[in-house]
Structures are given as structure tokens and as C-alpha cells.
Amino acid sequence: MRKGKIRYRRTRHADLVPAMRLIISTINHLYRKTGRQPIKARITKPWPLMEHRLRTDPEGTFVAVNEKDKMIGFCLSLVREQEWYLAQLFVKPSYQTKGVGARLLEKAMHYGKCNNCNRWGLCTFSSNEQALALYSRSGMPPQRPILELRRTLNDKTTIRDLTPEINLRCREVTQERFINRLNQLDHKARKTRRPEEHFFWLGDSNSHTYTFYNERKLVGYSVANNSGHIGPVVASRPRYLTSLLAATINITRGNNITMQSLYLPGECGAILQSLLAVDFRIDQVFLEMASEKLADLSIYLPGNLAHY
Description:
Aminopeptidase; 31% strand; alpha+beta; globular; 31% helix; single chain; 13-stranded mixed beta sheet
């Protein structure tokens, strides 16, 4: 391989730890440019969710390596029914503006085209102007802001609960036989089903899936993990969404955690006001970029932005 040549290939399991280190270092480069504190993370093994995505979509993930076979770019995309979603795309800062990101995106989008996808989307940092231009040129213009909200729970005696508007019965799901019903809720809110993620959440000891009932009727579900992150939150009807979120926040508060976080689309003003009133704060702003809006926000709040 001649000096300076960049090679692109499919991601292997052995690439996941270098890919995660690249993700953290690239995010930290952006954070330093915008005055944010860098992330401190020592990565020695793959995140379970990354392994899950490689298993479900091995043909949608690629790495770029330089002449020394060192990773300088990484992307991972998902196909769920007719929707293509870009989970991650990161390029080493010294190789940015050299076409690496565009080439990785082209290869990832080809995966979606081969699967006859007709919806295309992702979420990215609102401060990353290069990425915003690249994705817009690729047919995914900005659709809405996505706010990351956090609150600390160091002194739990001063933390207030949210009061659900409707008192719903909660049940944690542990059996896969419920997945079809969860898929029906997803399809209504997101126009796509994702059994792959439900199998992952149910099999992951760090994740908890809660279903909610108004009397005997299933009216929604939510997912929360042991680090305090909440989402997605999915309701069968708009009147239940805020109660689902409030109940999930209150449940996870009692799980011996020190922080709670969630993603909230910017137009959900009433929910935002209620969260700010109980000490959540806006930590940073992302952008949903897509060929069309990815969800009905009257009944849906996103989860991890790498799968929406």
C-alpha cells in the first residue's frame, strides 16, 4: 500500500475497541473546540450495544485505515424495515476535510439502498458544522433540535418527584413474548418495528423495559438503564406520554443512581418546563437530520441517539 493511501473495509469485532477510542477522542476534540469538559473514559472491552449492532448489521459498518493500518474513521448504520439510520460516523480530526467521512457515509448508505430503504436519518452534534453540511448534501437536512437533559441525585432528599397526570400500573418486562406488542407501539410512533433492540434490552442486565397499563389496557412502554438514562418512551396515545415519562423518572430515581438523563425533542415545550422545574438542566443540543421527521412526538421520546 503506497504511503498516504486510505483503505476502507467492513468492521470486525476486533475493531470495536479502537473504534470506541476513536469515538471518544473525536468527541473530545469537538468538546475542546466548544469549551466543554472532555470525556474521561478507559476503554478495554467493547460496549455491549456496539457488539449488538455489529451482530445485527454487519454489512452496514465500515472502518477507514491509513497506510500504517491505523483506524482513522468508523461508521455504523442500522436497517430496521424500510428505515436506514446512521448510528455513528467519526473521523480522526487530522483526517477531517479529506473526504473520509463522505466515503464512509456513501458506503453506509449503499447498505440502506440495497435493503430498499425509503427513510434516512441520524442525530448529530449541533455544533459540528462539517457534519451538518455533509448530511444535508446527502438528503438528510435538519428536522428538529434534540435536547439532552440531566439532573444529579447526589442529595436525594432535595430531589422532587414528577407527578403523573394519570396513575398507571407499571410492570417490568422480562419475557420475549411481549416483544410483538412493543413492536406495535413502535410502529405507530416510529413507522418501523425494531425487535432487534427489544431482544437486546431484554437480554442486557444493564437495561430495564417497563410496560404501563391504564387498568388492564397496555398504553405504553419505556426503557431505562442502570446508569440512569431513560428512553425510549413510547405511548399508545398522546394523553399518556407525560405520565409514562414521569413514572419512569420516579421509578429509576430509586435504583441507587447518582444521575438521570434523557433526550427530549425541542418542540416538547410543556414536558421541558416540567423537567426544568424538578432540577433537570439542558446539557447539550443535538440535531435530528433526516429525509423526513423520524417520529410522532406526541407519543414518542427518543432513546440513545445512536438508534433513536
